[in-house]
Task: structure prediction
Amino acid sequence: MRRLRISRSFRTRCLPVMLVTLIFAVTGCGEIKDINHRALPIVMGIAPGDEKEFRVALQIPLPGQQQYTVRTVSAEGETVSQAIQRVQTNVENHLDLLHLKLIIFHLDLIKDGINEELEYAIRSRQIAPKSYIAATESDIVKLLNSTKERVEQDGTTFYNFFSQTAGWTPDISNTQLWEAYRAVHSSSQDYMAAIVGIGDDEMLESRGSAVIAGGKMVDRLDSEEMLLVNIFNNKFQGAVIQVLEKASVMVIGAKVRNVVSIKSGVPKLHSKLTLTVSIEETKGEPSPGEIRHQLNEEMEGRFMMILNRMKKHEADLFHIGQHFRRILTPDEMKKWRSEYYPQLEASIEVETLIRNTGDLIDQ
Amino acid sequence: MIKPLSLAVTFIYIHLSMSFFLFPEFLLTSTDAGFWQPLVINALLQLAFLLLLLIGLRKFPNRDAIEIVNPMGKLWSLILFVPLAIQFFFCALIMVRGHSELVSMIFLPLTPVWLITLLFVIIALYGALCGLKTILRTSLVISAFCLPIICFSLLTTAKLFDIDNFFPLSDGFSFVFNRSYYRTFTLYTGFLFLCFVPTVTHVRIRWIAVAWGGFVVVLLFSVYMPVLIYGSESAATLRFPVIAAMDSVELPWLIFDRITMIYSICTMIFVFLYISVMVWAVGYISDKLAPRIPKRMMIILTSAALFIGAHFVKTWHNVEQLIDWTQPLRLYSMTAIPLGIFIIATLRKGNET
Result:
């Protein structure tokens, strides 16, 4: 009993000492940058510079009385981090890249390779791996300036363009930074970056996608081809219109099943794609069978065409190599792109289900 | 009255506190594929020694490990428990330094490291001064709100999983020659604190076994989460794979932009408790072996040494070196203490009857 009392009084005596010491340690007074002294850029553009290696442009919303204004600042540097540092010296607030939502690379830069830049983004830990990446052909400073007005009305516009829960449609690629970084080291996963440009009315205009393999741009896909790639990578969501010769259908569901095998060193892939569609418009009077047949042929042809092009570039856009992980050893997987992938024998079977024909009954 | 549940929970978080920061990195670099192999082998090894220790302790209820060994001669206690105390100290030091670097990388890049270290040491010191009973009771309260958050944030990552990354299932046993593999043992020595629990509460083997099962599952998850998202090649290049994987998940409906922050704070609380237990254990061992030095004095001295020691570990590379250098000590404590206690307890029991 006595012992207990002693220890309790000791504990209570100790508590104030600990709390006072904690005041110094936990208040975080080392971080003296207040929130109103921080600038939080939402979009970053990276392009080759005129005088130095890189030009980095940042779009920064600045809070005002009624509504915030958006500012675009840019600077050049030998490395990306130096360019950001230069921007920092020109901006009166502390730059905090924590809330960056989109990184836009200039196509010229992607043609030379962006692996180092991606590594920088992950290494620095400032940029969230879930921010989106895109590409552009336009001048990045002009692009960010021209979209200013729209961003001033709604700060999340850029983000919504790529966000699955907002305005994104499956015919645009919405690659995130972590997916791009994954491809730097992965032996079987390449990715795309949506190419955006300055639109007339809309703030951004989609102009297809850049196929990036080994950190470099190797090919370009249009939005219809994109759709197929997104379906294959389980990124299909929502609905997309597909125009056929005699009808226009809305794809509302897509599923892929892959069966893979290796016979005498030659990888074989058989895919089964099931599309669920509803009919939107018809020209003439096509029978459901005709529409199904047309869509099947269209998709099969498109898939084979993209695959053959990708095989030439050794770009595994459909992540086919992933399925071979079950068969190949880690060492063989490292040679996937160069040895196995070009020999790949693929076949695809498309099945279309017409779920409904809209509010009209077809005869 | 300490509930067996709080002991089980303590057992889990002692292991969890490490399993998300240093452990996945070491395990992912130790082999190219088949990460479950080293993990399961180590966990089974740990289970074997854990059971040995518990069976040894059970032969003398309400006696802790030192009280069991002491009648065999002071020399035996010194041989067994002095290395253990040093081991505990270095475990605490690695945790303090590793996590202060982590806090600095994730939350507070501008705060001086010594302030963060101070925060760790002060809280651990207070916990250790209050004693094991208080720590055990606290852990139940804290786990009640931390464990659900941790589980939730871990499960949110499931939506990015690519099951194909699970394969190939095996890459042979070449990891045995890899230094990283031995570094993972830092986690598995956590169970040794059980040596000193019997004076406070009865250790129930069933509860501990369940806790062991629970933590192995979480461990597997924490290693495979980055692998399933990033693929094994890329995951091995990341310093904190779990944090990076969790940062990649987008949850627009959640009010927090980055769930990692909450998650890290929860595991950080566990680290505080972990260090408290370690510091307390050092104080307890010295109290039993050299009763002349007051226990509280020893605890305060240990904390001071922790704080000063953390200054000498200047870089991340030093942390890894420290782990490598203390490796023999760790393997010694992990094997010798359960074995020693089991043998001595059996011999004494045999002599008595």
Observations:
- The first helix of chain A runs from residue 2 to 26.
- The two ends of chain A are 93 Å apart (CA to CA).
- The CA atoms of residues 270 and 347 of chain A lie 5 Å apart.
- The longest strand of chain A covers residues 247-263.
